[in-house]
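Hi R.,

Here's the chain you asked about this morning:
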Amino acid sequence: MTVKLTLSYNGSKFNGSAIQPKTRTVQGELEKSLKFLGIITKTVFSGRTDKDVHSTNQVVSFQIPSFWENIEKLKTTLQKLLGDDIFLKRLEYVSDDFHARFSAKQREYRYFVSLKETNPFTKNYLYHHKNINLEVLQKASKILIGQHNFLYFSKSGSEPKSTVREIYDVKIYQYKDFVVFKFCANSYLRSQIRLMVDFLLKISDGILDEEDLRKQLSLQTHISKTLAPPNGLYLTKIRYNQKIFNTRKKYEHLDNDTKRDNGEKRDDRK
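And here is the predicted structure, written out as tokens:
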């Protein structure tokens, strides 16, 4: 049986999401806890996040054996093992061909900039940058929308089959003392968002301009290679086709059996 797990995590507590030897990662902690519950499986994440990058809605798919058909009980038990740095939001049945990464249609990230100086309680979750020109940022960000070769907005060392990505929308807005960068795309290259945010902030500061952005986006010249810090970045939403979730009837008998079993146990205790 294939399940879809939606979770959030505090990126400052992990050395990234993807499993790595001899270091604490989100995937590593999840698979270790699943193994403890008798679930030997390979988890698939919708996308990987770097060290200190957070997520409010990461999606993971994996297989569970039939003896764990009560997925509400599985979710509760798994949460106790994982502790406070990972929070399990939903665990649900999906179609067997669902793949958290390859089935995803859109991925949404948000980058949070604080206009006030951060403190020991906020510094792991926000990036402080003062004197932001919101109007300039909003105008320049529209240049990124569309299908482009983002080779010069990717971290060196990553070698994807293609560096072409499509950005569907970019919104930059202020909420109280925060400026939020919201990106929606089909997928992203490694560190692409942090490179784009850093470039846009340089335009806001008057260090670079829109023409510089167009030149780097068209691969004419590689002007800026620096990244915005990871702590302000959040994976916030993954969108899929709805049909992959219409599997409630397929497993209804399992839920009914579980409810009946639970009812019988309650009767025994009377």
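One quick note: Residues 248-254, 256-270 have pLDDT under 50 and may be disordered.

Cheers,
M.
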